[in-house]
Description:
By secondary structure, the protein is α/β, with parallel strands linked by helices. 30% of the residues lie in helices and 31% in strands. It contains five helices and 16 strands. It has helices spanning 17-33, 51-76, 163-171, 185-203, 252-261, and strands at 4-11, 36-41, 79-89, 94-102, 108-113, 119-121, 127-129, 143-145, 151-154, 176-178, 206-209, 211-217, 220-223, 227-229, 235-238, 244-250. The strands form three sheets. Strands 1, 2, 3, 4, 5, 12, 13 and 16 form an eight-stranded mixed beta sheet that branches. Helix 2 links the parallel strand 2 and strand 3.
Amino acid sequence: MTDFLAAAVQLTSGRDPEVNFNAAEEQIDLAARRGAELVGLPENFAFMGDDERRLELAPSLAEQCSRFLVTMARRYQVVLLGGGFPVPVGDGNSTLNRAELVDRDGQILGRYDKIHLFDVDLPDGNTYRESETVTPGDALPPVVDVPEMCRLGVSICYDVRFPEVYRHLASAGADLLMIPAAFTAFTGKDHWQVLLQARAIENTAYVLAPAQTGLHYGRRQSHGHAMVIDPWGTVLADAGVQPGAAIAPVNVSHLGRVREQMPSLRHRQPALF
């Protein structure tokens, strides 16, 4: 591992992919100019709209997203995570929700298809049925060893409520947990930050959490507050509620000190669980 700057991008994506791609590139450019070497885009960075339109766009959008990530990583010389985009499956009535990690040379280092789907009725009157048009992935999230950087564990949004995901990533050697999201405004105000801090603390790992923010369409509103959090649970950067980025250093020696001071990963009792 070496020290580097990490950026969690925050967007207000909508129904027009071209507008969304332009907004994402602007934030990647700004982050790279500030010295970020690892940049994460949020879930649904290329499209936030109704399910019917997403299914219609998915065949072309999947290819566009992959090409966009490769082009941006090369152009700005960053390791880039596309935090979630639709990839068609089956008869066209469903998609995967896929994250891709790309290196500076445009090589795809890892892919992850979201395994936990958001089917929830919220007290604010909003109902979410992600499983109606999204097929869950069938593989555990990966840990990717990025040369001259660190080992990155990849997840997506609702996964953050399932601590076993992050224990798996930590057990597989993750130094930094990537949690791109489009967290709802209603749940985000109470749960977003505390869940991110918990995942950092219990796994003594950095957390990079890109986020969607603001009103996207209809009543669909996201919480914002993209964050970078250190292994002690300290919030190093918070993007607030406007489009932008949370940028902070990932420090190798600090990670090592925290893991020595709080050696909980070494104290696990996996034989009993």
